[in-house]
Amino acid sequence: MKILLLGSGALKIGEAGEFDYSGSQAIKTFKKSGHEVLLINPNIATIQTDPNWNNNENFTGADKVFFLPVTPEFVEKIIETEKPDALALSFGGQTALNCGLALEKSGVLKKFGVKVLGTPVDAIDATENREIFVKKLDEIGVHTPRSIAAHSIENAKKAAEKIGFPLIMRAGFALGGKGSGFCEKKEDFEKMAKEAFAFSPQVLVEEDLRGWKEIEYEVVRDGADNCITVVNMENFDPLGIHTGESIVISPSMTLANREYQLLRTIAIRTIRHLKIVGECNIQYALDPDDDQNYRVIEVNARLSRSSALASKASGYPLAAVAAEILLGKNLPEIPNAITQKTTAFFEPALDYLAVKIPRWDLQKFRKVSEEISTEMKSVGEVMALGRNFPEAIQKAVRMLAIGSEGVLDSPVNFKTSELEKKLRIASPQRIFVVAQALFSGKFSVEKIWELTKIDHWFLQQLERITDGAKKLDAVKSLDAENLRDAKVLGFSDSEIARRTGKTFLEVRELRKKFGIIPVTKQIDTLAAEFPAQTNYLYTTYLGEKNDA
């Protein structure tokens, strides 16, 4: 079979770069199954368009790469010339999805006999067209935000009068949240509506749910209706900030089991009703004061930026499994990528935490607001793993490469008098502002919650870090107990040294002396001591031996 895979298009803020992972995995899977792969993607700075792929003995890249815009006009020409049998839409983000929908509606796919792999086009349209989406979920009693779809400024004004202010506007078929935002008062509405219609022919006027928790589930369904939720994630910030702009934690930390199971059940029921085949993402708003009060915000009938994070966080290769399903395999037939003995028909259970933090470079642009909300401004992200939230968040901050050793090492110093104002506004510095406010002792967890609506649990965990920093500042002699406590809270050797008046090398030597070392090294030591248990130790704690 000859498969045409649509890439994610040119690299821009808010789109394209994050889908290289899913597209590369799809190409690898299709090629491994013996299919010919054609790729259209104008972005040369990706793995999937790299010509060196074909020099790799383990796998090869696409048979042909077309460095052309992912638009209906160019894709139609390729279809006419190359005559592919099938089209893969779900690995190139919103750009590929919009292109595929346009090709279907114009009759190009029918004209050339090209079938769409996986989710049917009418199901994709149901998730993208906000009006149809709401009606579909109403059919099975699943709650969506109270909303009205509008196709003109006049219709939008009437919808706003019914919904009431404040409200949110969402542009249909948009990338990276473009054209979406909160409208606080009637006077601002017309201007915002015109901006939204500049991005899309359809605008959804919705109730304001700011302050609610934002939760995501990654769901996989095959052609035989086997369906699993692979990973769930929780945004550090409450609803009102684009997921690509928010710190994200997996698995969720603040949900009770009844809440987790409620949302999981709704996810499976929704994806089955929409008849999605492959991988998708479902996003919720959950009322923090009523665990039965939820809204399904959207369903992405494709691999999303969250899918790459979920794959790396859990070890479950979502894109590769989705590609296998698109080729007609069912979950019980796909080998488990980790064990190679069981199948992909399982839901990972993590005994660690993954934290994603976006990276912004707003200082490179003139007249750009530091405030972050429903439209993406971040240019990338990092992910860190840890046994607890403080450890993972501190590691992630260091990985941002902005010169910070942790949440208390802010790249910008804030005056105490500025903190309340800074807490109210979501910005790239907010995690540092929250930590500084807690460290100052002038803001309680409750006060910060009132200003930010960030869940109490996250604020309490950050308070553990600030309390730990104060203990380090007061330490006269660094012993095994307080050094171990600091490492559990994610403090780097450099920051411990700075806070205790020692050098980095002195802290490192002390740590080794006390046996406070990474888990891999601890297992190596145990394996040397108990050679008969070597296999058990490595497979139980690491999955396999990791010499690095």
Quick gist of this model?
The chain folds into four domains: 2-117, Rossmann fold (3-Layer(aba) Sandwich); 146-207, ATP-grasp fold, A domain (Dna Ligase, domain 1, 2-Layer Sandwich), CATH 3.30.1490; 213-350, ATP-grasp fold, B domain (D-amino Acid Aminotransferase, Chain A, domain 1); 357-517, Orthogonal Bundle (Carbamoyl Phosphate Synthetase, Chain A, domain 4).
User: What is the class of the largest domain in the CATH system?
Assistant: Mainly Alpha
E-strand count: 16
Q: Strand portion, in percent?
A: 15-25%
Lateral arrangement of strands in the main beta sheet? 14-13-10-11-12-15-16
**Derived structural class:** alpha+beta
How many helical elements? 21
Silhouette: globular
What is the averaged pLDDT score? 87
**Unreliable stretches, pLDDT < 50, 5 or more residues?**
544-548
Cα-to-Cα separation, first versus last residue: 40 Å
Return the CATH architecture of the largest domain: Orthogonal Bundle
Quick one: CATH superfamily of the largest domain? Carbamoyl-phosphate synthetase, large subunit oligomerisation domain
Oligomeric state of the chains in view: single chain
Radius of gyration: 25 Å
- Helix amount, in percent? 40-55%
Number of domains: 4
Which fold name is given in CATH as the topology of the largest domain?
A: Carbamoyl Phosphate Synthetase, Chain A, domain 4
Largest sheet: 7 strands, antiparallel
